[in-house]
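R.M. (postdoc): so does anyone remember the format we settled on? I'll just put the structure tokens first.
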């Protein structure tokens, strides 16, 4: 082998060695660059993730801060609203207490006035009872005198036959006169009682209707625009108090009825029949009438007519008891309007 060939071989081997070393270096460089790029990508991903986490943490912190601010504002608003509601409730309580105090004072004044009127009526009634008893005693005394005068007149007529007899008033005629007077008084009291009952009943019946009409007009804006619903309730509560109280009349008329029944018993006793307290007046009338009719020709027609009028008075007194029951019902309804009126019970429009 020649030197030239050896040299060529050496050169080729050198070139191959150089190319193999370059390839190895190139491959190593390629791997290192790929590794660097991977590390950079990883670092970039980590940085991006860290940035996103930081931004998320910052956003969460900002959201938490905003929520805390909102909660604090809501709590302040709730405290302010509670304070306002408490102030409104306290004001309403004070106004309600003032209204109730005003109503209580009005009721007390009305009660005092009613008590004063009751005492005055009681005093007048007592004087009237005493006057009635005095008149009854006077009637009995007068009847006794007439009976005695009639008896003496008959004795005088039998002693002097030639002297004309003078007709004297009989006991039955005197009693009949008092019965007619009592009948007129009872008739007048019936009219007065019926008038009182109808007047109170009309007020009691009309008040809820008036209240509803007022509320309808108020809601439509036709009247009382500056008034509240509570103002209207108070107004009609006062109106309920202003309705006349019939309980006093109820008490007085019950007493008066008892007196009139006792008077009828006196009339029957004056006609000659003793009336037992346990016996009814109707039974006493029938007994007296039977006794008088049993006399036949000696029957006194004045006694029969008087008993008929006494029976008529008794029927009127029974009718008055029915009116008094109606009056009691009306009085109870009036009291219910004051204590628990319909517009207070509902409590709203």
């Amino acid at each position: 082998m020649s030197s030239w060939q050896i040299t060529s071989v050496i050169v080729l081997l050198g070139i191959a060695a150089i190319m193999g070393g370059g390839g190895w270096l190139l491959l190593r460089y390629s791997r290192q660059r790929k590794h660097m790029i991977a590390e950079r990508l990883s670092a970039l991903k980590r940085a991006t993730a860290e940035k996103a986490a930081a931004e998320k943490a910052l956003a969460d912190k900002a959201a938490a801060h905003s929520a805390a601010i909102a909660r604090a504002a809501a709590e302040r608003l709730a405290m302010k609203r509670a304070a306002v509601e408490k102030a409104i409730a306290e004001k309403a309580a004070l106004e309600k207490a003032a209204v109730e105090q005003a109503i209580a004072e009005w009721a007390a004044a009305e009660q005092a006035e009613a008590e004063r009127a009751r005492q005055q009526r009681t005093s007048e009634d007592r004087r009237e009872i005493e006057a009635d008893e005095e008149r009854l005693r006077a009637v009995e005394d007068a009847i006794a005198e007439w009976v005695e005068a009639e008896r003496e007149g008959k004795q005088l007529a039998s002693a002097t036959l030639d002297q004309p007899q003078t007709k004297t008033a009989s006991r039955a005629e005197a009693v009949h006169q008092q019965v007619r007077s009592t009948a007129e008084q009872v008739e007048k009291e019936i009219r007065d009682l019926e008038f009182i009952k109808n007047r109170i009943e009309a007020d009691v019946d009309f008040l809820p209707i008036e209240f509803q009409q007022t509320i309808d007009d108020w809601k439509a804006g036709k009247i009382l625009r500056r008034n509240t619903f509570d103002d209207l309730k108070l107004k009609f509560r006062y109106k309920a108090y202003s309705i006349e109280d019939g309980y006093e009349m109820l008490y007085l008329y019950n007493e008066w009825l008892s007196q009139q029944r006792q008077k009828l018993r006196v009339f029957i006793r004056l006609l000659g029949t003793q009336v037992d307290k346990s016996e009814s007046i109707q039974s006493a009338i029938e007994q007296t009438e039977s006794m008088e009719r049993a006399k036949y020709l000696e029957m006194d027609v004045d006694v029969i007519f008087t008993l008929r009028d006494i029976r008529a008075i008794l029927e009127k007194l029974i009718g008055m008891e029915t009116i008094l029951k109606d009056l009691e019902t009306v009085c109870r309804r009036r009291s219910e309007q004051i204590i628990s009126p319909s517009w207070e019970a509902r409590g709203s429009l």
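R.M.: ...and that's the designed sequence above, right after the tokens. Also worth knowing: DSSP finds seven helices and no strands in the chain. The helical segments are 3-159, 171-219, 229-242, 247-270, 281-293, 301-339, 342-346.
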